[in-house]
Amino acid sequence: MLQWVGVTNSNVDDLKTINSIVLPIQYSSTHPMYKHIVSSGPQFSYLVYHPLEGVIAGMGCRLEPAKEPLYVDKIYHRQTARIYIITLAVLSMYRQQKIGTQLLQRLIETCNIINANNSVEYIIQDIYLHVQCSNHPAISFYQKLGFQIEKNIPQYYKKFSTAEEQNAHILVLPMKLTSE
Q: What superfamily does domain 3-125 belong to in CATH?
């Protein structure tokens, strides 16, 4: 049986490990994104452990203020925030088993619970991420879960050699807000 846990200071090294194995871009273990992931809280970032294999998947997210809020909470005066998916990684031998889907569904459910809870100091307007334009399987995966391509950013991934590899789409999933 798989174990699902939130990312904290005590297990963030496991997220670093899964990212270094799976992702095409190698991030240093001291990259600031890991501090953002931990400081955003374990409710937004997750690790999946297999009882014999150890960590097999992980997702790191950052909670950030919305620069252009689509919603103003005039009743509870909550700040408008966004969730940025920094990384989502599943070992290749565990793909096609809905682990990535379950990671995203947990995040979406958490955001919906937060948005329905008027005692929380923020409301989440959307979840978004960057995906290489050449990564058609990833784009399809996110679109099946309701994400839409918002725009294209040329040369976002400068470490790659071809234009198709360098270009990124921003994919966005709008969240249900409490007033809707």
A: Gcn5-related N-acetyltransferase (GNAT) (3.40.630.30)
pLDDT of amino acid 180: 44
pTM recorded for the entire structure = 0.92
Q: What does the domain layout of the chain look like in residue ranges?
A: 3-125
Burial of 126 (0-12, 13-18, 19+ CB in 10 A): buried
- Asked if 98 and 86 touch (Cβ cutoff 8 Å), the reply is no
Q: What residues have CB less than 8 Å from 27, skipping those under 6 apart?
A: 16, 19, 20, 33
Q: Tokens 């190698």 sit at which residue?
A: 26
How far from 21 is each of 16, 36, 80, CA to CA, in Å?
9, 21, 34
Q: Examine the pLDDT at 135 and tell me if it is beyond 80.
A: yes
Please write the tens of the pLDDT for every residue from 21-54: 999 888 898 999 999 999 999 999 999 999 999 9
